[in-house]
Amino acid sequence: NIQYCMIKCLLDHALNSGIRCYHVAPVLCQRAKVAMSHFEPNEYINYEKLEKNINIVRKRLDRPLTLSEKIVYGHLDDPAKQEIERGKTYLRLRPDRVAMQDATAQMAMLQFISSGLPKVAVPSTIHCDHLIEAQSGGEKDLRRAKDINQEVYNFLATAGAKYGVGFWKPGSGIIHQIILENYSYPGVMLIGTDSHTPNGGGLGGICIGVGGADAVDVMAGIPWELKCPKVIGVKLTGKLSGWSSPKDVILKVAGILTVKGGTGAIIEYHGPGVDSISCTGMATICNMGAEIGATTSIFPYNARMKKYLGKTGRADIAALADEFQQHLVPDSGCQYDQVIEINLSELKPHINGPFTPDLAHPVSDIGAVAEKEGWPVDIRVGLIGSCTNSSYEDMGRSAAVAKQALAHGLKCKSKFTITPGSEQIRATIERDGYAQILRDVGGLVLANACGPCIGQWDRKDIKKGEKNTIVTSYNRNFTGRNDANPETHAFVTSPEIVTALSIAGTLKFNPETDYLTGADGKKFKLEAPDADELPKLEFDPGQDTYQYPPKDGSGQHVDVSPTSQRLQLLEPFDKWDGKDLEDMLILIKVKGKCTTDHISAAGPWLKFRGHLDNISNNLLIGAINIENGKANSVRNALTQEFGPVPDTARYYKKMGVKWAVIGDENYGEGSSREHAALEPRHLGGRVIITKSFARIHETNLKKQGLLPLTFADPADYNKIHPVDKLSIVGLADFAPGKPLKCIIKHPNGSQETIMLNHTFNESQIEWFQAGSALNRMKELQQKSS
């Protein structure tokens, strides 16, 4: 079990420490085999290969390398021949491992089953965290989830066993906290089917969120393609203190770069201020880098990471990282594509929102801004936890605030919930008293899961359409994301600020300057919270929630019932017929922000993530139609009647009519969910034309055989009307870097032509021609056999 593995690792470290006292030559230390994790004792960290690849690339480029470049280029499939140009070339990479959360793992494993391969080629894990709805409290909600989702959990557990994938059972915790505790390490390259996978950058790894089809490539042993990222440097000086926290760093950066400012880039933190931030604090910053569109974020290996590795039973990994430290930090004199500098000593607590995570405000200003804008200032619910802020330190700082309120006879005026990040965090904060303090102040401890952060919240205190405010320590606050209510004004901030505001009950409270009135009528001011970054004792691992895959899973049966409403085996998409896409109808022309939540909503729809036809009934139901300003109401061009988007798409598919979607800026930002690409493909869509795309979504569309195209002139967005027909011509000569021609046919018979850009490379064009990346994989398998 976990506890045994941790004890064994600590004993091994003690023995290894004794050996190092005799000054064994460093080369022997370098050759020592150190396992990637407790759970895969025969899968080893290969820093020697990383070093070799870095040296090859450094010699070729003849310049200092950023940390991001070292780890990315250190995982190149062919470092000697790979063309490397930031922001332009596509890299072929060999990630070390794959992680999947249960909502996306269903489709990923269904695609892997379709590949016909017997076993995954790299260490892979499934984490059950998305399907647990917050309702009554941790234990009750977990029991209910196990009952409701039994079919899905059984499928994931048996598929994991058959194909060699580790399985973290429901209740184990949020995928990113589990990865930080067990799988991330300095220099690792990990891909995960969740957009907040970059959380692992807090331990010095390149951890990237992807769609399920990308995960299938890696699990199949195929080189994974990524456009060579640019590198944005964030230089940190000074030191965090007082009410300022790591969360404020990323809230500040989000305000600077906006939700698309990091697109196509890795955010690399460096500078003397880094050492003032805990390892889990660095993870918080990296986690929310997803909100600025960044490919991932990373910190250099340092003593804070070493301390965390030791406390989580991985001192052997820290010792090995020490030997290779020169490759786990940036080279002196390396060049960034952009540099932002933040003085942590001057950084004030921030709160971002509502409705977008890049609308940044100092906490001291938010009350006045809310009153001016007409946002509700009374806070209905405060929520702490999530994959972004559920560490031991986060819980400790929140408890430190709560303890002060209790000492003056106060409890939270707002409803208050707590989400532990993992079973290990839950058990440890229970043992150390933090959980009880948070209950005493009025909090409800939820299950170790995503819960309200992703819309898994059976909220009862308001009616849908009721205008209200909530404050969270989460990462996203898009319209309706947490509770499906478009009138909920959600703000994101640090857990300690959430706790303070929940005690006060209003956005107009500034804990740095304002006073509260105790039960005795006396005024008092909250002191800035202080808490240990790690427990003084060892972590309590809690219940054992991990299922090892058997050595031979070939005899394992994976059951998918043909009558299931939750799971559905996949049928291959149709191949391109070799012709231009002519006279396509426009399903919807989207007005404004269109995230993956708008394209494929979560919340109650999560239960259909393994059933493509059923979940397609939520296609674009949150997107605003420019024709009438409404959501889920589009004109059927064949009947001229208005109806729901999915119904209209199904009608077009039934009639054999291809269709397109027209989008605005940064289309598909947010979650990595590939259902936002699978659904339009399943219902007959062929082309998505926008001003710009979010990285993950653009790749997901390509993987499923769709054409994501962008206006060569963004003003051409205004030339297309919902009643027009579109033709994409020149597909017979489809080639990398060559724009495509779009003919717009207006109802009055007139036509005009615009040009559309794309980012397809040669292999991605083959995906389109084959009908999908999975189809192309099968073609190559057949050819090789």
Automatic annotation (TrEMBL):
Where located?
Mitochondrion
Q: In which pathway does it act?
A: Carbohydrate metabolism; tricarboxylic acid cycle; isocitrate from oxaloacetate: step 2/2
Q: Where is this region: Disordered?
A: 533-560
Q: Which cofactor does it need?
A: [4Fe-4S] cluster
Q: GO CC terms on record? A: cytosol; mitochondrion
Every Aconitase A/isopropylmalate dehydratase small subunit swivel domain range: 586-713
Q: Which NCBIfam families has this protein been placed in? A: aconitase_mito (TIGR01340), PRK07229.1 (NF005558)
Q: Can you name this protein?
A: Aconitate hydratase, mitochondrial
Source organism of this protein record: Falco tinnunculus
Q: What is the lineage of its organism?
A: Eukaryota, Metazoa, Chordata, Craniata, Vertebrata
